Amino acid sequence: PSVLCDLANPEEAGRVHQAVDEIFAAALAVGGTLSGEHGIGITKRPYIAQALGEAGVKTLMAVKKALDPKGILNPGKIW
């Protein structure tokens, strides 16, 4: 979700992060996904394992390694 807030305000940022955690958990609990029209992206990175499970993450990492063995495509983003 897009949540506008003042990240310089620790209390507000904490509430927003908690809300996002709850929103993603609820979406996944009913069979939803993390991705929308723009894909996963780095902001949803912490939730990928929750969404895909260990096997799914390992599969995606293997695909990334097969397609980008030198790690030069989008380094440090998701994998």
Question: Please, could you describe this protein's structure?
Answer:
The chain contains 2 helices and no strands. The model has no long low-confidence stretch (mean pLDDT about 90). The longest helix has 20 residues, at about 10-30. The protein has one domain. It is globular and about 40 Å long. Helices cover about 50% and strands about 0% of the residues. By secondary structure, it is an all-alpha fold. It has helices spanning about 10-30, 50-65.
Annotation keywords:
globular, single chain, 79 residues, mainly alpha, 2 helices
Explain the layout of strands and helices:
Blueprint: H1 10-29, H2 48-67
Overall number of structural domains: 1
Count of runs of 4 or more consecutive helical residues: 2
Approximate shape: globular
Uncertain runs: none
Cα distance, first to last residue? 22 Å
Mean pLDDT: 91
Q: Quick recap of the structure?
A:
The chain is mostly helical and 79 residues long. The chain has 2 helices and no strands.
